[in-house]
Amino acid sequence: MPKIGAEPIRKAALINATIHEVGKAGSLDVTVAQIAKRAGMSPALAHHYFGSKDQIFLHAMRFILKTFGDSVRDELKSNDSRSRVVAIITASFASQNFQRETVSAWLNFYALALTNTDAARLLRVYHRRLRSNLLVALRPMTSRPDQVAETLGALIDGVYLRSVLSARPTDGDSARQLVLDYLDEALA
Amino acid sequence: MPKIGAEPIRKAALINATIHEVGKAGSLDVTVAQIAKRAGMSPALAHHYFGSKDQIFLHAMRFILKTFGDSVRDELKSNDSRSRVVAIITASFASQNFQRETVSAWLNFYALALTNTDAARLLRVYHRRLRSNLLVALRPMTSRPDQVAETLGALIDGVYLRSVLSARPTDGDSARQLVLDYLDEALA
DNA sequence: TCCTTAATTGACTGATCAATCAAGAACAGG
DNA sequence: CCTGTTCTTGATTGATCAGTCAATTAAGGA
User: Fold this and answer.
1) Does residue A1 fall inside a structural domain?
2) Helix (H) or strand (E) segment spanning residue B66
3) DSSP letters along A88-156, please?
4) At residue A1, does pLDDT exceed 50?
5) Which one of A103, A119, A127, A143 has the lowest number of neighbouring Cβ atoms within 10 Å?
6) What share of chain A is helix, strand, coil (3-state, %, to 5)?
7) How far apart, in whole angstroms, are the C-alpha atoms of residue A186 and residue A134?
8) Residue A139 in domain
9) What residues of chain B lie within 8 A of the CB of A127, using their CB?
10) Which CATH number fits the domain that encloses residue A176?
11) Where in the sequence is the domain holding B37, given as residue range(s)?
């Protein structure tokens, strides 16, 4: 079976399996064995490619943040400011970012950032970038872009948090609408 | 040493120790031994009084939510609607609820609610009560109390989340101000 | 005094898991 | 065909911990 070039495929499978297992379990207490099994390989191989369980988590987290960043970039093609802000909000609640398992994994990685400095650094990069994107778009629209950006960021995080904890299935559209309504009020 | 009546004292000490250890560790991965040590007793005694580690966590979580509820009740003495909304917001960011360790413990209990149905139930009760309090206060002030209550709740959670993850020390006053500014916009 | 009951712990058990290692299997290049 | 490299796993180790239990201490009541 050793077709050369397995490494990137195996790594991707492990990252994908990690997000699903963490999301499904709702906890970082998933064993390397579980992850490896879902990814279709032995636990030893997972260690072979990533070195440690922490590294597996970190790469999974990086993947989530990168995916999010990519969807923001895709939506940021528009020219006028309002569209750009709306684009960021839309990306936040796009279905691939707002699936229950993804958000559940996301929450657990937030908790991980309390203990793991690498995770914290990743998260800070993501926050800074989101903030910067929002600021650029907001500056022409309001006299207090900093405050609106801060509020928008917190609101998005809060809506995420509540969505994953509510009993109802996650509804990206109404979540998006809530944030957009705030935006209209703030810019009125 | 068996002075009768140790139970409530021991339990309180364990709950307090749990919040501090979880907050300090930034994770629910604290051992019963750690908690018991901080509380000044043996791990066996902790099991004797609470039965299981899960029960220890659950009681600690209940304590945090109750403390929060108490501070809301204290602030809710006012008569006019606006003061009542402000009171809830103020209580949310009062120092005893907004200490780094408390918020850190809070975040981890949120994550716990993803797996533990008892924890989820506790959280739902808290959300429902907060929402109900906000609704009563908001109804005379706006034509869309549901939406404002939902946004306020999410915003508070989001601000909490960000406060514990930022490198800077947590600042309850500016957090409170951010939420109050939203309130003014929403009611304008 | 003696007996019951609460308080308390040290020692132990059983289970779980991350990480390691040595060895096997299959391909590519010479 | 060898030979080295990549891929892969079963078996094992070493450590950690939740939870149990039997035994000890001391108070309070009869």
Assistant:
1) no
2) helix B53-75
3) HHHHHTSHHHH-HHHHHHHHHHHHHTTT-HHHHHHHHHHHHHHHHHHHHHHTTT-S-HHHHHHHHHHHH
4) no
5) A143
6) 80, 0, 20
7) 14
8) yes
9) 162, 165
10) 1.10.357.10
11) 6-187
Q: How far is CA A114 from the centre of its chain?
A: 16
Tokens of A51: 């070195």
pLDDT tens digits, one per residue of A25-81? 878 899 999 999 999 999 999 999 999 999 999 999 889 888 888 888 887 776 687
Q: Å between A27 CA and C19 C1'?
A: 21
B33 touches strand D (CB under 7 A): yes
Total number of domains constituting chain A: 1
Distance CA B69, CA B181 (A): 23
In a domain, B1, yes or no: no
> CB of A33 within 8 A of CB of A114?
no
Instruction: Going from the first residue of chain B to its last (188 residues), give the mean pLDDT of each consecutive group of 10, the final group possibly shorter.
Output: 72 93 86 95 94 92 85 77 87 82 83 83 86 91 94 92 80 92 91
